[in-house]
């Protein structure tokens, strides 16, 4: 192999451009994500928004329309109970407590995940009540 072959040969193959987002594709992505990961509504919104931003960049997708789809998807999954910020917060509080995290560290971690202060406080109170009962 000569130096010319090495220089002319592409070293990395480029990934194909993902298809443009549609309401259906976003819904499918949300269902796959929720089936695989426990997440807050802010987490799901962040995942779907990343897909929309890629599609806007690669396919000139209407960003405003796609953001409306995200709102509808998050609202629908929240209403069905599949996406439950309060339950997610309580689960994370329990997990972080088992690892020895302080209340302040827990608040910071949950806040970074996009949970509201009300959900965080309720989860911390609920977890403390459970510990008092045992």
**What is the general shape?**
elongated
Number of helices: 7
Terminal Cα separation, in Å? 71 Å
N to C succession of SSEs: HHHHHHH
Low-confidence stretches: none
Summarize the main sheet: none
- Beta fraction: under 5%
The number of strands is 0
Radius of gyration, in Å, reads 21 Å
Mean pLDDT: 91
Structural class call reads: mainly alpha
Overview of the structural elements:
The protein has helices at 3-8, 23-36, 41-59, 63-80, 85-98, 103-112, 117-133. The chain is mainly α and 134 residues long. The longest helix has 19 residues, at 41-59. The model has no long low-confidence stretch (mean pLDDT 91).
Helix and strand topology:
Elements: H1 3-8, H2 23-36, H3 41-59, H4 63-80, H5 85-98, H6 103-112, H7 117-133
Helix pairs in contact: 2-3, 2-4, 3-4, 5-7, 6-7
């Amino acid at each position: 192999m000569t130096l010319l072959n090495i220089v002319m040969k592409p070293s990395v193959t480029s990934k194909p451009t993902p298809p443009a987002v549609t309401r259906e594709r976003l819904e499918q992505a949300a269902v796959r994500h929720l089936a695989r990961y426990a997440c807050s509504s802010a987490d799901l919104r962040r995942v779907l928004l990343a897909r929309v931003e890629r599609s806007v960049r690669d396919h000139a997708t209407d960003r405003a329309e796609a953001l409306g789809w995200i709102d509808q998807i998050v609202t629908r999954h929240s209403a069905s109970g599949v996406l439950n910020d309060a339950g997610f917060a309580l689960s994370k509080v329990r997990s972080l407590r088992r690892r020895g995290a302080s209340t302040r560290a827990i608040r910071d971690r949950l806040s970074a995940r996009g949970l509201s202060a009300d959900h965080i406080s309720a989860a911390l109170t609920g977890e403390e009540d459970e510990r008092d009962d045992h």
